[in-house]
Amino acid sequence: MIHGAHPHAPAHLVDITLARDCDTCRGWGSVVHDGRFELCPDCQGPAGQHRDARDLDG
Q1: What is the DSSP code (8-state) at residue 34?
Q2: Cα Rg of the chain, angstroms
Q3: Secondary structure of residue 39 in the 3-state scheme
Q4: What's the distance, CA 34 to chain centroid?
Q5: Is the pTM of this model over 0.70?
Q6: What is the pLDDT of residues 1-55, one digit of tens each?
Q7: H or E element: which one contains 36?
Q8: In sequence order, which ranges of 1-58 are alpha helices (DSSP H)?
């Protein structure tokens, strides 16, 4: 039997350019946490900037 996405699971919009060099998600932009795909906290965080990019800003 084929199952689709869970009806209460929103589609995550991943910014691949931010994820490209991320070691946490290995460039995918998402991670699996407790069986759910979630946006990577390091590169897709609330600021929308990769951790390394924030460090370079100052």
Answers
A1: T
A2: 13
A3: strand
A4: 15
A5: no
A6: 566 566 665 566 889 999 999 999 999 999 998 988 899 999 997 754 545 444 4
A7: strand 36-39
A8: 16-19, 51-57
